[in-house]
């Protein structure tokens, strides 16, 4: 059995959005780079499946040559190999086509996991496009996966709760964050061992772009408003607070 996890190296997602600086509609190059937040959730889930099923776990990425140093974290977490397609396109269709080419080269792949969205552009487009290219079903917002009867039992997070799905055969899942897939912190021994694990680099293939053009990118300005609620009568204060929260659609 082989499981593939898609991982993208992105600018530091812990930088507050109000402090984020854009250059040419993208993050300033001065920011530290790292594997995307949700991609690490997918890697963690992949490692858990590997440990339960004895599967091979391959991390496939599209990006810059120097992304390898950051992708080694996935190897330290437990992945067996990294495959990096070297390219600098930001077009979802181009990225998906190159990821498909890299996955096709890995032989039989039983399951493909990806973060639900990248931590830089937050588009969440590539996993679905890739599933279409591979002619596989796509399940978004998955949080846990079990192997059952030649397929997969999947828990999917919805706006109102969780539902269970059965996937017969192969598929592409985008993984969201839950406490059960919080990325593990690699031990020092695993970090050193990761330096000896294989990294395969592939050239970018040429392909057309998605028929959607990006016109602009902006960071929303954060505004805070303070409203004081009289607290002489606590029962009345609670009623006012609940009413105001409902009016602002927080409840």
SSE layout and pairing:
Layout: E1 2-6, E2 9-11, E3 22-23, E4 26-27, E5 33-35, H1 37-53, E6 56-63, H2 68-77, E7 81-86, H3 92-104, E8 111-115, H4 126-134, E9 138-148, E10 151-157, E11 162-167, E12 172-175, H5 188-194, E13 199-203, H6 234-247
Parallel strand pairs: 1-6, 1-8, 6-7, 7-13, 8-12, 9-12
Antiparallel strand pairs: 2-5, 3-4, 9-10, 10-11
Compose a concise summary of this entry.
AMP binds at residues 6, 39, 62, 115, 118, 123-126. By secondary structure, the chain is an alpha/beta fold.
Can you walk through the features of this model?
- With 251 residues, the chain is of the alpha/beta class.
- It has a single domain (2-203), classed as Rossmann fold.
- 28% of the residues lie in helices and 27% in strands.
- The protein is built from six helices and 13 strands.
- A nine-stranded mixed beta sheet has the order 11-10-9-12-8-1-6-7-13, sandwiched between helices. Strands 2-5 form a two-stranded antiparallel sheet.
- The longest helix is centred in the N-terminal third of the chain and has 17 residues, at 37-53.
- It is globular.
- The protein starts with a strand and ends with a helix.
- The mean pLDDT is 92.
